[in-house]
Amino acid sequence: MTRTGFCAKVARIDGRRRSRHPMSSLTFAFAGRRARARFELGLDICVFLFLPVLVLASRGAAPLAAVAGLCAFGLAAPNGAVAWRRVSGLAVLLAALVLWGLLSSLWAIEPRRSLLIALRLAGMFGAGLALIAAASEIMAPERLLLCFSAGLAIAVALAVAQFWSNGALTAALSRRAFIEPVLNQAEDGFAFLLLPLCATLVLRRQRFLAGLLAVATVAVICLLVGDAARIAFVIGILAAVLLYFWRAPLTRWAAMASVLLILTAPQVFPALAGIAVVRDEVASIKFSAWHRLEIWSFVGGRIAEKPLLGWGLDASRAIPGGTELTPEGRPWLPLHPHNAPLQLWLELGVPGAALFALFAARLWSAVGAVGWPRLYAAAAGGSLVTALIVALGSYGIWQEWLISAEFLTLFLILVMARLAAQPLPISPYPRRAPARSRR
Predict the structure, then answer these.
(1) Residues 163-187 pLDDT 10s
(2) What is the mean pLDDT of residues 238-247?
(3) Whole-angstrom Cα distance, residue 276 to residue 405?
(4) 284, exposed or middle or buried, with CB in 10 Å at 0-12, 13-18, 19+?
(5) Quick one: average pLDDT of 208-222?
(6) CA 236 → CA 228, 229, 248, distances in Å?
């Protein structure tokens, strides 16, 4: 038998074998659908637990986001490059930030700390990018919305219980005494997500549920002690109203203003402590606000010493002179500057600030160009304003719970946008025309 005839015979035998097992391809398809269903169920559970975890143990947001990122990767991976192409631009920015952080360990005060934080950021950014890529792969977004709404309702109840009981829900598991600012993280989560959630429910004609969740959540935001979240939420609402009417021009102006504010942060924020009117007004409101001005003034001087390269990733906790006390007896720099642009300038210099400015501009450009319904786009823009204002006065930007919460928030906003844009099903029972009045 010739070689050609032998190959043809092998091909015929292989074809007969495949014809004998027609269920093999169906089995693989069924297994794939079952795996997708399990990954999506995992995301539903993570979304349900998100806000309750922020209330009871905010640090738990990091492992929760890691689990959600694995589920999201399993959901998006089968689509190959198509799913990941949507996050390629953001991935480049985040990768550049991680690489610059790694490089900064060469001159950092604590090089091992810089290396560790850079590796952590790489893992968290990877999980976050998987969540963003998977947002368009969710097959049952209605179920995910239901899980998130239920989680929000439970989190609101838990926050009230924690506040009034002085932390009784977690007293047995915590070594530290409960203080009211512990709930600030949950308050921020409520403020970030309430506007997009209510907009989605209104567009889905669930106005009663939207109103009920809005009233309960706003009441809790006002009850808790986080001033930054309340102020940012009010400004976010005002911004959403303006964006509803003038989204295109306002997003362009907001992008330019964000870039300008980030790049000039070392001149703007430290100078506030030298303005008598600002200093007196802040001192009369709250001592912690005055301490912020002292921190920013100190950080401005340290940025001026190394403006180009910075002091190294997460070097804020080891800056020379940071542990010395102010005239009021507080450290000049307690762990971080409580201001995202200043922290990037302090630790990563000009490249870090430039990357953050590009990131903010990209977010505003996306809000201005995306084809979401008008109401939802305005609500998402208001949420972005709220998050940016909180970033100007609270938390360290490398905190694991904060980065994880932000990526979970963005994932939820993207999934809810799909629901907001979907046309509602037509009822099989047409409404009766109103009877004409007889004269």
Answers:
(1) 999 888 888 877 777 888 889 999 9
(2) 96
(3) 37
(4) exposed
(5) 94
(6) 12, 10, 17
Centroid of chain to Cα 404:
7
Distance between terminal CA atoms of the chain? 99
Residue type (1 letter), 333: L
Residue 325, beta-bridge partner list: 331
Handedness of CA 86, 88, 93, 97 (dihedral sign): positive
Confidence of residue 9 (pLDDT cuts 50, 70, 90): low
Classified as helix, coil or strand, 21 is: coil
pLDDT digits (tens, 9 = 90+) for 244-261: 999 999 999 999 999 999
Domain boundaries, given as residue ranges, for the chain: 36-167+177-421
Residue 438 has pLDDT above 50, yes or no: no
Q: Quote the CA–CA distance of 351 and 308 in Å, as a whole number.
A: 8
Give the pLDDT confidence score for residue 439 in this predicted structure. Answer: 42
Q: Amino acid identity, residue 117?
A: I
Express each pLDDT in 119-129 by its tens digit: 999 999 999 99
**In sequence order, which residues have a C-beta less than 8 Å from that of residue 259 and are 6 or more positions away?**
357, 360, 361
Q: Which residue has the higher pLDDT, 435 or 105?
A: 105
For 10, counting Cβ atoms within 10 Å of its Cβ (0-12 exposed, 13-18 middle, 19+ buried), the class is exposed
CA-based nearest residue to 161, from 170, 149, 169, 153:
169
The residues with which 331 forms a beta bridge, in sequence order, are: 325
CA distance 233 to 229: 6
Q: CB of 389 within 8 A of CB of 231?
A: yes
Give how far the C-alpha of residue 143 lies from the chain's centroid of Cα atoms, to the nearest Å.
Answer: 21
Asked if 99 and 348 touch (Cβ cutoff 8 Å), the reply is: no
Contact 348, 400 (CB under 8 A): no
Find out whether 133 and 89 touch, Cβ atoms under 8 Å.
no
Which residue in this structure is represented by tokens 């180009």? 308
| pLDDT score recorded for residue 175 | 77
Residue 311 DSSP code: S
Closest CA to 303 of 257, 259, 352: 352
Least confident of 2-6, 125-129, 208-212, 359-363: 2-6
- Mean confidence (pLDDT) of the chain: 87
Q: How far apart are CA 31 and CA 245, in angstroms?
A: 48
Residues 269, 172: Cα–Cα separation, whole Å:
41
Helix and strand element counts for the chain (H, E) = 16, 0
Whole-number Å distance between alpha carbons of 360 and 208: 34
Give Cα 282 distance to the centre of its chain. Answer: 29
